[in-house]
Amino acid sequence: MLILIASTTGWGGAETFEPWGFNGQSVPVRPVRHDQEVISLPARMALAGINFFSEYVSRVDGDRCPMYPTCASYGRQAFGKHGFLTGVVMTADRLIHENTEMEYAPLVKVGTSIRYYDPVSNNDFWWYKGEDLDK
Amino acid sequence: MILCGALPCHAGGLPQNECERQFAFAESLFEESDFYRAISEYKRLIFLCPGSETLCEKAFFKIGVCYFEAQQWQKAREAFDDFLHRFPGSPRVGDALYFKGMSEKHLSLHEEALDTFARISETQNGEVQEKAIYESALILVDREQWKRAGEMFARIPPGSAYYDSAVVFSTGLENIGNLPHKSPAVAGSLAAVLPGAGHLYTERPRDALVAFLLNGAFIWSVIELFEDDKYVTGGIVTFFELGWYTGNIYSSVSSAHKFNKRTRETFLQGLKDRAHLSYFFDRGTASNGIMLSMSF
Question: What is the pTM of this model?
Answer without folding.
Answer: 0.71
